[in-house]
Amino acid sequence: MSVFSVFDQLQNSDIATLISRQDHLFGAGAQLLHISGLILVLASILIVSLRLLGLGLVQVPLPRLVKATAQFIWIGLALLAVSGVIIFLPAADHYYPNPVFWLKFGLLAFAIVLHLTWYRRVTKQESVKPFIARSTAAVLLTTWFGIAYAARFIGFY
Amino acid sequence: MSLPAIAEWLNDTQIGVAVRESVYAFPIIEGAHLIGLALSLGLILFVDLRLTGFFLREVSIAGILYSLRGWLLLGFGLTLSTGAVLFLAEASKLIFLPVFWLKVSLIFLAGLNAAWFEVKWGRQAGNWQQLTVLPTGVRFAGWASLLLWFGVLSCGRLIPYLGAGL
User: Cβ distance A37 to A76 under 8 Å?
Assistant: First the structure.
């Protein structure tokens, strides 16, 4: 079974049909949840990165800041996932040939793996070696803000 | 000069025309507007969460405020400047859209709330470290900021949906 036929079946599923029958403001509501979740995630990543770079909240121990932002990252990701499925399903066939769509999800897969491995390991330490701290922040910011930027392009491509 | 005439004139400025007619300019500026939002609304969200007691309660409000202020203002600079360019490209449509004026009003109110907070509490923020419960006005300002900015975000996201018919 090809990837496209999976997308096609998703678009023709009962749930997708149900979503596409809703008023267009239902779609707008999903978009609003999506951007709210995105701001929660991006701002959390930003705040931790600023701390890693020594440019903000340097008075807060790194593990403490990471613990305080973790709940907002997961709330944000949950909002993104739920609203993302609602946005994706009724237009799955339309997204399939869009290269920016695949770029976004490639970056997202990388970001999640990075978050569960490297991010966890580095941010456990009270003091991180400057080189490690700086490069971690640079990769985090590029990846997550890259996802947001790619996402904004999908609809225009 | 009437408002529609001004909007028409803004709409026909070189920047307005260039952004409207280019394939890439619009999404590039939209993307920058979104990143500006993550800095401005995102960081103010954490300040508000601190004021309302949901984030880093053991760290002083002044410490959080002063540490993030520069980034926050940079974010607002990026959001406002990209927003102004996006407005130019669609000025003659946007001025007839109630949700656009609602968004502008809410931005004004949120700004007023922040200014009021600065004037009334700004200099005292350093003395709150010993307090377990903050003055009611401070928490009120935090909640007002959260709600107002969420309203601004909602209006902004709704503009393309409510303006499609224009």
Answer: yes
The whole-angstrom distance between B136's CA and the closest CA on chain A is: 24
Angle between helices A24-52 and B25-51 (to 10 degrees): 70
- Does B59 sit within 8 Å of A60, measured CB to CB? yes
CA distances, B95 to each of B6, B92, B104, B109, B164 (Å): 10, 6, 11, 19, 14
Q: At what angle do helices B61-94 and B25-51 cross, to 10 degrees?
A: 140
Of chain A, the end-to-end C-alpha distance in Å amounts to: 27
Residue A115 DSSP label: I
- CA distance, residue A68 to nearest chain B CA (Å): 7
- pLDDT tens-digit map of A70-128: 999 999 999 999 999 999 999 888 898 999 999 999 999 999 999 999 999 999 988 88
Nearest-by-CA chain A residue for B161: A28
Cβ pair B64:A57 closer than 8 A: yes
Dihedral class, residue B29 (left if φ above 0, else alpha if ψ from -120 to 50, else beta): alpha
Chain segment A4-48, per-residue pLDDT in tens: 888 888 888 888 888 888 888 888 999 999 999 999 999 999 999
What ipTM does this complex have?
A: 0.90
How far off is chain B from A112, nearest CA to CA, in Å?
Answer: 19
Nearest in space to A39 (alpha carbons), one of B48, B62, B15: B48
The b-or-e profile of A21-57 (16+ CB within 10 A means b, else e) is eeeeeebbbbbbbbbbbbbbbbbbbbbbbbbbbeebb
